[in-house]
Structure formats: structure tokens, C-alpha cells
């Protein structure tokens, strides 16, 4: 079976090296298998630019999708263009042409999960997407395995390398958000338009894919409560650090009977905790099952080789699959009540910049509407508050009103 | 295919509940498979005591191994007796009788790894042992997966729940070793004879299984350098804590070209680190591959349900296996040079109790033979030293000599 690659960008070139250029042990998986003298290779690479040079290798650059869709020798397509519409159309076309598909595209998977799985099943082929969540961390496969025995009730994780890099760097250097984002952009750790990362869409897509699988129900990106992490400032890093906490950007979902709770937001973990010590481009994902308890998986959430490793793992799965055996289909039909964020409870840290005379009173009065007790530190033109335990929905409502009067605030729930 | 269970102890009863008593989702894995109307069950349970009561369930207690070995309806045996000789003989007999075997017995696997794998292959059956390392953590399967693409070069982990519970409890409560061991024994977290746990044999067996797989060479328990953790005292917890460190009991192996380095010993991690925050019965295992980088897996390293989960995962693998397909065999024939501990380098913490007048001078003179620089704290009848960076083999040699003169010492390398 020949393989086609859509996109020879960062991850695509990593996949090309692993499969075609003998980096890693890919080809070693085939020497023992009868009837297969040599390992499968990528014969065609779809690129917009025909002049893309693959060197003196077996793969050939093509610019017309038909060259892949109508090539019967190609049984498996690795879709790594990124973006939304074109990749979505290509994945659909490949599945309809009865070609297996492996992708790392979390946007396409989270948006069209059910449709694409159905399409694969109807056409007797397989869709794999391990690299769409957690980069190199083998979370999709592990979640499927644990679900054979467990009812999964909770997922939480640091799921975005860009924002974790920014927060780690700010913590390490005491730098401010804007400068650190600019640094991340300059070294290729953040996109020119960082919205998807810093506003939580990327985390939300990953959380929605894992949650859909775990809770057996389609959970869409827009079902997930999300709050960006662009309001965090050096002064927050400093103050929360002096309180013994580290700021992390967390995705978290909980299933309780038929009620689903989700959130993506900046939170605080104790410095002496596992989550606080997941730094830079590393990710961590925690899943909790009723039999196994909590499992956590840590690894590189981004980067060429680690992500390519996950993609090629999927490729190997398909190549080693028994042709006569139908892959297990995912159950996604459960009807869940999207129940908001009320299950997430904790003390809150809040910082507000005081501009007008009356701002301090406004902040304290607003916090008092939801918190029984609070600790207050006033420092020049800022007030810092740590509250007693409050449910997330109540605190979010309060801050929404408060922000109309005192716009520059940052807040985060404390995980203890 | 019927299943037999050897041993209805803690893990055995957990496995029985998952497979026979509809705890968890085990039976749900079979409703979709054609030609299989109902899920496989445990029909026989081998126990020494015939009066063992399984209640009104489908399983029957037997005391004669022949009842299982000669029962052709039994295709899979789950070996959870523990101990060494009897379980080893039973596993061999089952494989020879062409029955698949699943076991959690790390002693048997690490001692007879190659022989048992060969026996399984010769008889066309499968031997699985996921629960032998890391309890509920899916490390054996994950390691096999990553090895399809990666050359693994390093493994390290907190691999023993008993000693991690003791160290966590000592750290939490400032309690001493003997009291905490007694507490662990009283609540079933430590054996009456704790030697295997506190002297490192248990960690060494687990490390040798993972290292054998990862480095494709039989690494035996006795190849692993090990040092017990019975010398740690409340005063060490207090002093290392005040220096910002946490004491953990670590297994660590590194492969560099053909040189294998292994160690099992107490070490110090910074309080703000992932390793320091793996507490009580939880385990963590880190593997490093040349493509994927570092992956870490965290979960319950012991306990009825989590370990039973891992065992039943192996059972499911075998039940869902394609009968015509030979399982991939492990490569274990590589010839490695057992190169000791010289690759492990770091600052050292050392505490010595001063009994005789000349003890302080002896300790400082001994440390000076290996350390360029050192920080010394003398406190009543004890001396605490933190050294510059030293290779493990040099420090170990020095302390061996020193202990002849100043017997009560504790030392640990610092991981930074």
C-alpha cells in the first residue's frame, strides 16, 4: 500500500523523514511480515508549489489533488495541510475514494467528528487522529484502551504548547504578556495571528475531541466555556508566585450522570504540584476512570518530530491492521445536558487595576456579592483579592458585570 | 474461550469482579462482535483453600491445577498467585498446554523473561504482563508502541508504591522511617517482610523488565545496581526539605551506544518538579526516545482495581486478537556492556551521625577525596554535607569505606 502526504510543512516534513528517509525505526516494522518485502513509502506529496524539492527521494510533488484521489496504488492519505475548508474537503474525498486517512487537524476533527467517522465506516476505511490532541502524547489511543473497561468521568490538561510556553517564560523571566507573545512569535512558537491559542479555541477543540470520545457524545467547540489568557500580566505572575502558585492555562471537563461541565481558562496550581511543573512546549493530560482512577500522560504537545511520531504511529496501525476486520466504531450518540461551569469550585485570585477614585470600592463590593470571606492587598494602583471558595459560574457572572466598570482585571481559580 | 484465574487474592478478586460480576465495562466489548453472543467468563479459580466462597457466580473454586491444565475449554489463564516457584511452574505448564497467559508477577517475568516468551512463541500462544510494572499505568503497551518508531535511550521512574507511600508520609508528617513502615504494614500498604520493597528488589525487577524491552537485551535483576531506602530519617526529610528538595526512591537506566547504566536508590528532586509531586501509592514512569523525546506516564502503581484494570486490559487484548496472526515477538538478543553507575552524576546530600570525637573529621576527609567543593552544616550530633557534582560510582565507593568507620549515614544524589 502506497501513502500520500498532504502538506510538506513542519509536521509533514517530519513524517516524510520517518517514513521515506529512514529516520527512526519505521521500516523495521515490516521486515518480519510475510508477503511484504519492503516497507510502504510516501509516493506523492501534495503541495501548492510544484517546485518544492524533496531531493533524490522516492516521493514526487504533485499539485493536483486528483493525482492522489484517482491513484489506486495509494491506500492511505496523511492530511497535514492545516487550516479548515480545503483539508476537510480533501479528507472527505479521500474517505469516499476508500482511502484510509490519518490527520493531525484538530479543527477539522472537532468540527466534523461524527460526519467523518461515519464516512470512514460507510467506505470501509479508517480515520485516525492521534496527533490532533497533545502532539506526541499517545492520549487518543490510551483513552480508547481505558474506555474498554472504564467509564471516564473527568479530563483535564495543559493542552496548548504556545500558551504554556508564554506562561512558563513569563514565570521564569518575570516578563510581561505582550513581550513574551512577541518573543514566541519571533521563534516560531506562536502564530502571527495567535487568537486560536491565546483565546482558548485550540484548547477547546482538543478538549471537545477528548470529551466527545470519553463521554460518548458529540461535544462541540462552541459547547465549551472558554476564557482567554491575554489578561495575565507580570504582576500576576509575581503576586501568585509569592502566594505559592503558578498560572497555567487549563482545559477541564467533568461528566456527572448526564450533566457535562467544561471550561478552558487560566487557573492557579500550587507550585509544588505536577501541573505547575509542566513547562514550555510540554503538555499533560489527566483522565479519570471509575476503575483505573487517575492516569496522567506527559510529553511534547507540539514540535516536528514528536507530532510526526504520533502521525506515523497511526500510519503503522493502519498498515498493520487486519484487512478483514472492521475497526471498532466510536459511540457518540449519547444525549448530554450541557450544564455550564457550576461544578468547578475554588478560591479565586483577582487583580484589578485602579484608575478612578471609586474603583477600589467597586471591586470589593462586587467580590462581596459572591464571596463569604476574602483577603485584600492594595498596592499602589492595584488591588489583589483572594476569596473563599466560590463556584465558577457565580464568579464569572460577577466579573462580567465588574469589567464594565473596572476593565483591567485578571482572575483565576485556585486548584488545591 | 473460557478463562481460569490462579489466585483470588486482592488483585485476583478485582479481576473476578471486572470479568464475572459486571463491574466496569468488560462485557460491553463483546456485544458487537459477531459469532460471540456472550462475553467470556472465568469458569475456574485455583485456590489453596477449597472452601473459598465465590458466591452465586459462574466461577468454581478448584484446588488441583490439573482441573485447569487439562480443561480444553480454558484458553486463557490469569496468573495472580504471587510468589515465585509455583507461579513460574504454573505459567510454564499453561503455555505448554497452549493456553494464553496473563500475569502481574514481576518476579517471575523478570527472572524468566526470555524462557517464558520463547515457550509462548513455540506453543503459538501469547504471554502478557502489563500489570507487572507500574500497576494500572499502561507502560508496557505504550513502550512497545513507541519502540516501533523510537530507539529508547532512558527510563526512569518512581516504581514502588510502598516506599513512595512511606516517603510521602514521612515528608507530610515529619515521622521517622520505622514508625512509618509500621503504619504502612498495619494498613496493608507494606508486607510483613518489607525487604523486597525497601531494599529495592521490587523496583529493580520492574526496571529490569522495562529496560530489557527497551534496550532489546535481557537485563537481569542482579545486573541492576541497587541501594535500599531504610537509612532515611525524619531529620533527612527536614534538612532536604529546608534545602528545597524531596526524597524519592528512583529506578533509572540509560543506554549509551552499547553501554547500559542502571541504578535504584534514594535521590533528591527539587520540590517544584513533577517527580517530587508523585505521592503515596502513585507511580510515574518516564521514557525517552530519539524521535518522541520524553514521555511520562502517571497513575496508581498498586491497588486492587487499578492493577486489575491492567490485567483485564491484557485479557481483552488476547480475546480480541486475530487467531491467525502471530503476535510480534520481542527482540531481546542484543549484547550490552553492563557499565555500572558512572553516568549518573550530581551533587550529593550526605548526613552522618557523629558518635565518636573523630567522626566529624573522618566524614569531611572522606568527602574531600571525591568532592571539589562542599557545604557543611554541623548540628549537635550530626553533620550534613552538600557536595559539588560527583559521579555515582565514585561517591558510592567513598561511602562504602566511610560506613566502616561511621556507620549511620544516609546519602542521596540531587536531580536538578
| Strand residue content of chain A | 15-25%
Question: What is the CATH class of the largest domain in chain A?
Answer: Alpha Beta
Q: Biggest interface, and residues per chain?
A: A-B, 50 and 50 residues
Measured between the Cα atoms of the first and last residue of chain A, the distance is 51 Å
- Average per-residue pLDDT of chain A, rounded, comes to 95
Number of helices of chain A: 13
- Give the full name of the CATH homologous superfamily of the largest domain in chain A: Dihydrodipicolinate Reductase, domain 2
Q: How many E strands of chain A? A: 18
Which fold name is given in CATH as the topology of the largest domain in chain A? Dihydrodipicolinate Reductase, domain 2
Secondary-structure class of chain A: alpha/beta
Overall 3D shape of chain A: elongated
The major sheet of chain A is characterized as: 10 strands, mixed
The gyration radius over C-alpha positions of chain A equals 23 Å
Named CATH architecture of the largest domain in chain A: 2-Layer Sandwich
Helix content of chain A: 25-40%
Q: Spans of chain A of 5+ residues with little confidence (pLDDT < 50)?
A: none
Assembly category? homodimer
Total discrete domains of chain A:
3
Amino acid at each position: 500500500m502506497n501513502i500520500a502526504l498532504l502538506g510538506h510543512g513542519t509536521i509533514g516534513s517530519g513524517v516524510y523523514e520517518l517514513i521515506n528517509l529512514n529516520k527512526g525505526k519505521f521500516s523495521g516494522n515490516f521486515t518480519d511480515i510475510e508477503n511484504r518485502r519492503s516497507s510502504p513509502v510516501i509516493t506523492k506529496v501534495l503541495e501548492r508549489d510544484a517546485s518544492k524539492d524533496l531531493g533524490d527521494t522516492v516521493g514526487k510533488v504533485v499539485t493536483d489533488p486528483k493525482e492522489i484521489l484517482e491513484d489506486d496504488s495509494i491506500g492511505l492519505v496523511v492530511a497535514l495541510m492545516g487550516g479548515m475548508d480545503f483539508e476537510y474537503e480533501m479528507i472527505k474525498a479521500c474517505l469516499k475514494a476508500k482511502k484510509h486517512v490519518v490527520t493531525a487537524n484538530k479543527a477539522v476533527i472537532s468540527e466534523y467528528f461524527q460526519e467523518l467517522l461515519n464516512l470512514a465506516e460507510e467506505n470501509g476505511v479508517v480515520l485516525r487522529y492521534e496527533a490532533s490532541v497533545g502532539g506526541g502524547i499517545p492520549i487518543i489511543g490510551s483513552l480508547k484502551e481505558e474506555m474498554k473497561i472504564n467509564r471516564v468521568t473527568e479530563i483535564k490538561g495543559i493542552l496548548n504548547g504556545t500558551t504554556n510556553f508564554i506562561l512558563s517564560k513569563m514565570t521564569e523571566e518575570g516578563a510581561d504578556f505582550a513581550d513574551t507573545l512577541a518573543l514566541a512569535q519571533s521563534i516560531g512558537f506562536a502564530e502571527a495571528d495567535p487568537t486560536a491559542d491565546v483565546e482558548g479555541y485550540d484548547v477547546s477543540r482538543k478538549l471537545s475531541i477528548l470529551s466527545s470520545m470519553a463521554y460518548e457524545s458529540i461535544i462541540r467547540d462552541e459547547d465549551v466555556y472558554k476564557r482567554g489568557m491575554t489578561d495575565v500580566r507580570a504582576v500576576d505572575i509575581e503576586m501568585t508566585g509569592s502566594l505559592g502558585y503558578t498560572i497555567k492555562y487549563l482545559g477541564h471537563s467533568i461528566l456527572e450522570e448526564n450533566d457535562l461541565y467544561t471550561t478552558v481558562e487560566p487557573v492557579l496550581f500550587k507550585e509544588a504540584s505536577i501541573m505547575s511543573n509542566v513547562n514550555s512546549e510540554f503538555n499533560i493530560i489527566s483522565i479519570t476512570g471509575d476503575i483505573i482512577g487517575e492516569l496522567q500522560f506527559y510529553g511534547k504537545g507540539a514540535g516536528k518530530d514528536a507530532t510526526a511520531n504520533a502521525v506515523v504511529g497511526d500510519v503503522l496501525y493502519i498498515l498493520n491492521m487486519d484487512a478483514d476486520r472492521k475497526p471498532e466504531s466510536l459511540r457518540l450518540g449519547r444525549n448530554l445536558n450541557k450544564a455550564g461551569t457550576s461544578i468547578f469550585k475554588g478560591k479565586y485570585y483577582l487583580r484589578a487595576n485602579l484608575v478612578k477614585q471609586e474603583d477600589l470600592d467597586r471591586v470589593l463590593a462586587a467580590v462581596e456579592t459572591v464571596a463569604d470571606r476574602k483577603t485584600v492587598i492594595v498596592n499602589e494602583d492595584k488591588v489583589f483579592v483572594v476569596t473563599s471558595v466560590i463556584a465558577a459560574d457565580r464568579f464569572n457572572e460577577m466579573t462580567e458585570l465588574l469589567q464594565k466598570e473596572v476593565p483591567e482585571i485578571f482572575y483565576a481559580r485556585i486548584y488545591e
